[in-house]
Specification:
The protein is an alpha+beta fold and 497 residues long. It is built from 17 helices and 18 strands. A hairpin with a 5-residue loop joins strand 3 and strand 4.
Length: 497
């Protein structure tokens, strides 16, 4: 046997950490984004769009070294040897935009934007290299009222998307308070940067490991159920008690009590005291506006990005669902943000206050799908007009035009297959119905309209093939003049289902 000839075709493969999106997911995301946009505009925010690519040094978090930018961003050199990077969030590009157009923009400048962001990180379950965010920001307002408004707008957004009160909470903390805690336990200065980060990571694990687990991580370390050991921050007993006293404020009933417990938890220094006062103002504002039960002061909130300078917040979903292993699970955080007063000021000789919130579109969409509030299944496709007589293409196209003129999605089958394959094609397109007109139907001035969805339903109860062929269920013959009305009734019934 002759050796099989080798193929030179490229192997079709998707890079790690990326996903293809089908029509159902795209349309579901579009509906969700339209709802979010409506709330943001109700609050007076205006859209703005920035490019996917920025100069690397403008992004702020990652700066180029001698050879290439640090890990975390996708970067390349321009023809003038300038480093460019794909944006890793939507906030850093906004800071550049505001700084570049500062004199022309109203202050405060209230804007929103959505788009893809990119992380050059190791992908994993639920962790992608490309994902979509939807942000809103107020630049030029130093008052904690701007931070409170962000939290209230996020609560309104979640409810507009169908998430009930009690199924979510907006948690609020302040990086100044966290800095004050670090100062109180002696972890100041650049030499303690690593230990400060370790302490913050331990606090961030409160929901996952509980107070006992956090206490272990603050000390020597913690061993999990599998036996893996995580090295701790190495604090002494006095420092651990101070941190745990601060963290305990999250058990408070009501925001006023939480603020008082944070204020009494440790000697927070000038910065920490200022942070507590900002939390107090936020608690007062959201309480007066009727959001006190939905927005919670929580000292365990730790946002990862280094540019946060004041209040920080996270939107957390509280309802349980089932994971891939059939175990109860929570979606957790679906968005977050905070105050970043230093980011715009990097481009100017003056500080510029700013605060914002970012929604993780893909994660929130998965949560809404689990709640049954949004469907990512493919919607009904277009009506398909089949072709039985190739010399009558113009007449078939006229049928398609009549349907489109009536506002009905429709297409003419343009492939080269026969009748049976055309029906299979319409089924794959998820068409509500197909139009059939051969020479016999044309001579009588009629068309056959086959309701595909109804046909599937009836096929489940008609077991006899002969009866099926004889009855031709879900297929009706109507005059050509009644084509549009007949199809409209089928499409509307399908939409209602």
């Amino acid at each position: 046997m002759a050796e099989k000839e080798k193929s030179n075709a490229l192997k079709a493969r998707l890079p790690r950490g990326l996903v293809d999106r089908h029509a159902g997911a795209i349309k579901a995301a579009d509906r969700m984004i339209a709802t979010i946009r409506g709330i943001y505009e109700l609050y007076g925010f205006e859209p703005v769009e920035t490019p996917l690519i920025e100069y690397t040094d403008a992004l702020g978090k990652f700066l180029p070294d001698q050879d290439r930018p640090n890990e975390g961003v996708f970067s390349f050199q321009d023809d003038d040897e300038q480093w460019l990077s794909l944006r890793y969030d939507l906030t850093a590009p906004l800071a550049r935009f505001v700084a570049e157009n500062f004199d022309q923009l109203p202050k405060p400048y209230r804007s929103y934007r959505n788009g893809w962001v990119f992380r050059n990180e190791k992908p994993g379950p639920g962790r992608f290299r490309q994902f979509m965010q939807f942000d809103a920001d107020t630049v030029g307002a130093a008052s904690p009222a701007a931070d409170a408004e962000m939290c209230m707008m996020m609560a309104d957004t979640l409810e507009a998307l169908g998430i009930q009160r009690g199924d979510y909470v907006i948690r609020v903390n302040n990086r100044k308070v966290l800095d004050g805690v670090m100062e109180s336990i002696g972890l100041t200065g650049p030499e303690n940067a690593g230990r400060r980060l370790s302490v913050l990571r331990a606090i961030d694990k409160l929901d996952k490991f509980g107070p006992e687990g956090v206490e272990l991580l603050l000390g020597a370390g913690r061993k999990d159920e599998s036996g893996d050991f995580t090295k701790g921050s190495g604090l002494d007993e006095t420092a651990i008690k101070q941190v745990m006293s601060y963290v305990a404020a999250q058990d408070s009933v009501g925001n006023e009590a939480a603020v008082q417990r944070i204020r009494a938890s440790a000697a927070l220094g000038t910065s920490g005291v200022a942070g507590v006062e900002e939390l107090d103002q936020i608690a007062t504002i959201v309480g007066a506006a009727g959001y006190g039960e939905r927005i919670k002061i929580d000292p365990s909130v730790v946002r990862g990005l280094e540019y946060y300078t004041g209040p920080v917040f996270e939107a957390e979903l509280l309802f349980e669902t089932v994971n891939e292993d059939g175990q109860p699970a929570r979606f957790g955080s679906v968005g977050g943000g905070g105050r970043y007063d230093g980011l715009v000021g990097r481009f100017r000789s003056e500080p510029v206050p700013a605060t914002g919130f970012s929604i993780g579109v893909s994660r929130l969409m998965a949560a809404l799908s689990a709640l049954g509030k949004i469907s990512v299944e493919a919607e009904a496709g277009p009506v398909v007009v089949t072709v039985f007589d190739r010399d009558r293409m113009g007449e078939y196209q006229k049928m398609v035009k009549d349907l489109r003129d009536a506002g009905i999605r429709a297409e003419l089958y343009l492939g080269g297959s026969g009748p049976k394959a055309q029906l299979k094609y319409a089924d794959k397109r998820n068409s509500p119905c197909v139009i059939i007109q051969g020479s016999d139907e044309k001579a009588k001035g009629v068309v056959q309209v086959k309701d595909l969805a109804l046909g599937k339903q009836m096929s489940a109860i008609i077991a006899d093939n002969a009866a099926w062929r004889e009855g031709r269920p879900a297929q009706v013959e109507v005059p050509e003049a009644d084509l549009v009305a007949t199809v409209r009734a089928i499409v509307e019934r399908r939409a209602g289902e």
